[in-house]
Amino acid sequence: MDSRHGFVAVGLALALAGCNAVGAPRLPDPQLSGRDAQFMALVPTADVGAAYERYLVDFKTSEPPGSIVVDTKNKFLYLVEPNGKAVRYGVATGQEAYGWTGRAVVGGMQEWPRWIPPKDMLERWPHLQPTADAGGLPGGPDNPLGARALYLFENGKDTLYRIHGTNEPEKIGQSVSSGCIRMRDIDAIDLYGRVKIGANVVVI
């Protein structure tokens, strides 16, 4: 985890970037084919509001291009681009009791990942035990991990936190998850196509 000063610096950058989507270009959706086109025709859709659409925005940060910065307070994820720019996505974040902040790296990436309920979730919701016993839920339109998942690692170990799609897009902009960062599936697909294994992730 970075120093407090590092997080303050990132926070100041976010404060400047949070409102600057006015007049910023909205980025087009990625082109879909194969399984993506088949599944995306079946996933739920929702109007998330203009603020949570995908934009190219001005963004000043010391993080190198290719890094991901998540602003849990304002519900934005920024993918740092060269020349003081970032791609900004709307997200849903963890409820206060389950929120996570810190530094990590992208240690794994999967398309339409299988979902296995984690232990802490099984303790809260025992009705999910049959899903875990069956080896999880295969990837698809009904899977809560959505179209893509980025697996966050810290010091070489899986944190069990993810950046992933969602089958509940109406909750983008809210604090609803068990700590993971949720995105609209189309945004998760877009981010997946831009990110590489080993990318830095800062969650504040």
UniProtKB/TrEMBL annotation:
Q: Name one Pfam family in it.
A: YkuD
Catalytic site: H164, C180
This protein's source sits in the domain of life called Bacteria
One GO-annotated biological process of the protein: peptidoglycan-protein cross-linking
Where would I find the L,D-TPase catalytic domain in this sequence? 66-204
| GO molecular-function term, one example from the UniProt record | peptidoglycan L,D-transpeptidase activity
Q: Which GO terms describe its cellular component?
A: extracellular region
- Which pathway is this protein assigned to? Cell wall biogenesis; peptidoglycan biosynthesis
UniProt xrefs under CDD domains = YkuD_like
Q: Which UniProt keywords apply?
A: Cell shape, Cell wall biogenesis/degradation, Glycosyltransferase, Hydrolase, Peptidoglycan synthesis, Transferase
* Similarity section: Belongs to the YkuD family.
- This chain belongs to the protein called L,D-TPase catalytic domain-containing protein
Write down the species: Methylosinus sporium
